Amino acid sequence: MTLEEAVDVRHSVRQYVDKPIEEEKRQKLNAFVDDINQESGLHIQLVYDERKAFAGGLASYGKFKGVSNYIALVGKKSKDLEEKIGYYGEKIVLYAKTLGLNTCWVALTFKNIKNAYQVKKGEKFLMVISLGYGVHNGFARKSKKGEEVSKEYETAPKWFRNGVDFALKAPTAINQQKFAITLSEENKVKIKAIFGPYSKVDLGIVKLHFELGAGKENFTWVD
Ligand SMILES: Cc1cc2nc3c(=O)[nH]c(=O)nc-3n(C[C@H](O)[C@H](O)[C@H](O)COP(=O)(O)O)c2cc1C
Asked: How many domains does the chain have?
């Protein structure tokens, strides 16, 4: 399965079976995250076999069950930290799916566990992504339509429509899908986050999906 194929079958999963992630898959995930940290300068960490973060009442309020692994999203404080975490975090989500693992972005319903991961001086911890074998593979949910997030959708070339379709399959906080994508002259694409909770993280996630759908070679991002 490629990352592009993973976009089609990924859904948030909040309940997990009691099956540890195999050593071979851990090594693949670790190597993938190492590469991402090298490329991005982020300090994303995988936390395996740690049940306390999702053991309290908060987790059951958020409908999480059986979470024993997660991804701690950490990086140097900067203006674009949230967008970067969104982009690279989602790359890990899709890669995990290619390994047969389920995930869910989690901003709220977990507890910070001291020493489970590192936050160095000058760094900020944003949120986590739960990781493991789900009791199911999640479900399709409601989505906005292409023309609701892009005025050019109907008349745009195929690569752009494909990008928008992939963007609409992206996870966003409370499924808000608060973004607008514009096609301007000469294959220049602009994407804007509309104000909402965590919408800057959403923006990074949606950008990655758009690139996978449209093909990076077909356009350039403009501000
Ligand atoms: C930045 C972000 C934060 C999220 N926080 C939570 C959360 O705290 N609790 C939760 O149950 N789901 C959370 N989600 C998952 C969304 O509710 C989910 O992605 C959305 O409903 C779309 O469903 P899908 O991922 O199955 O496509 C979050 C998603 C994102 C992108």
From this structure: 2
pLDDT in tens, 84-140: 999 999 999 999 999 999 999 999 999 999 899 999 999 999 999 999 999 999 999
Q: Percent of the chain at pLDDT above 70?
A: 100
Domain around 199: 146-221
The domain that contains 16 carries what CATH number? 3.40.109.10
Pocket test for ligand 1, best of 10, 104, 205 (most atoms within 8 A of CB): 104
Q: Are 188 and 222 contacting, i.e. CB atoms less than 8 angstroms apart?
A: yes
- The pLDDT, as a whole number, for residue 56 is 82
Cα of 134 from ligand 1 centre, angstroms: 15
In a shared domain, residues 36 and 121: yes
What is the reported pLDDT for 157? 96
What are the CA-CA distances from residue 1 to residues 72, 90, 97, 100, 123 (Å)? 25, 16, 8, 9, 34
Question: Does the pLDDT at position 185 exceed 90?
Answer: no
Ligand 1 atom closest to Cα of residue 108: 8
Cβ(36)–Cβ(155) below 8 Å: no
Give the 3-state DSSP-derived string for 131-190, with helices as H, strands as E and coil as C.
EECECCCCCCCCCCCHHHHCCCCCCCCHHHHHHHHHHHCCCCHHHCCCEEEEEECCCEEE
